[in-house]
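Milestone M4 deliverable, item 7.
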Amino acid sequence: MAFRSLRSQLLFWLLVPLALVAVLDALVTYRSARETATIVQERMLLGAARVIGEQVHLEEGVVQVVIPPAALELFASPSRDRVFYRVSSSQGRLLSGYYDLAMPPRPLLAEETTFFDSVLRERAIHVVGFAQPLLAAPERGPILIQVAQTLEGRDELAREIWGTAVQRHLALLMLVGLLLWFGMRRGLRPLLDLRDRMLGRSPGSLTRLDTRAVPTELGPLVLALNDYVERLDRHMSAHSRFIADASHQLRTPLTLLNTQVVFALRQGESAAREETLRAIQLSVQHSVRLVRQLLTFTMAEAGASRPPPRSRVDLAALTKRALESVAPLAQQRGIDLGFEDAGGEMVVHGSQDLLFELVANLVDNALRYTQSGGIVTARTRLKGEGVILQIEDNGPGIPQTEREKVFERFYRLHDGNSDGCGLGLPIVREIALSSRARVELGQATQGSGLLVTVTFPAVTAPR
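Output delivered:
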C-alpha cells in the first residue's frame, strides 16, 4: 500500500501495530472471559451442591435427601440451560437424581470438591462433585453430591464479557488514532513551515535556509538543501561565465568576418578579392572550430556530471583514428606526427565519442602550439594496473606555474603564436573526469616541449 502523504504513512505505521496488539489482546481477553464465565458457573454449581448437602440427614438409619428449590433457583437465567443433579452413597448407590449422570473420575474424600466436563443426553455439561460428610454416621463415609449444568449460559456470559472488552478496546483504539492524528498534525507543522518558506522564495533565489529554527530531525535535510543551493549557485555562476566568455569569443571572429566581407565587396581587383576571400575562409574555419569546441565542452561537462553509457574501448585503435583525422593539419603545418604503440589491445571503459574527442583535442592542441618542422608523438602503453596515453611535442611547452591555469576555459598561454581558443585542455579534463582518468602535464623527454599523460584504469591485460 502506497501513501503519498507522510502523515498518512506515519499514522498507518503507528495504528497497524496498535491494531495487531488489539487483536492479540482480544484473543487473550476471550480466553480470560471463558475462564471467568467458568469460574462463575463452578461457584454456582458448588453453591447448589452445598445447599443440597445441608439438607441430607439420617432418619432411623436411613439417609434422607431433600432437594430444596433454592438449590435450583440459583441457575435461573434467560439462557436455555438445563440443570441435573445426583446424590449417591459412598458405595455409589443412587439416592436421588439422575441415574445417568456421570460419576467423578476418582473417589472423593470428605469435603473434597472436583469439577469435570461430561455429556448427558447428547448435551455437553459441566459437573461439580462434592463429598458431604454424614456427621451422624461418619462410619458410612461421605455422601457424593453432583450438580451439572449445560454450557449455553456459560458461553453466553463469556461472549458478553468478551464483547464488552472488545468494544472498549475499539473505542480506545479510535481515541488513540484521533490523538495521533492531532499530534502528528502538530508535530509536522515545522515541515509544513519549511515547505511554505521554500514556496515563498522568489524565483532564482539561491540564499541559504536559516537552520536555527529547524527541528533536529529536519537539520540534515536543510543542510543538504543548503549544500545543493551552494553547488547550484557555483554551477549557475560557471554557466553564466561560460556564456559570457563564449559570447566574447564568438563576437571577435564574427566582427572580423563582417569586416573582411565588407572589404571584399569594395575590392575591384580579382587578386585582392581572392586574398580577402581566403582570409574570410580562415575566419569561418576558426569560427566553426570554436563552435565545435564549445559544443564538445558542453557535452564533456555534462558527461562529467551525468556520465554517458560506458563501453569497452580499444584506446590504441581509437588513437590511430584520431591521428588520421588531424593528419591533414599536421601535413599543412609541416609537423612530423607519429604514433608509438606498445602492442596489444589497450581496453578502457568510457564513451567512445568522448574519448575520441579527448585524443583529438590533445593532438590538435599540440599541433597548433608546435612550430613548423616540429615533432608530435602519441603513445599508448600499459603501466601497472592502468592504461597510459601520452601526447608529446617539442613546442614551447608550458611553465610549471601555468600548468593549472591552462585547464581554465578560454585561457591561452601563447595568444600570438596560436589560433587556438583556449578550450582544448578544459575539454580533455572534463572527458577524463567522466572516464575516471587522470590528466598530468609534464616536461617533454627531449627537453623543450610538453608531455601530456592521461592514465586510465585498465580493464583487461594485453593480448
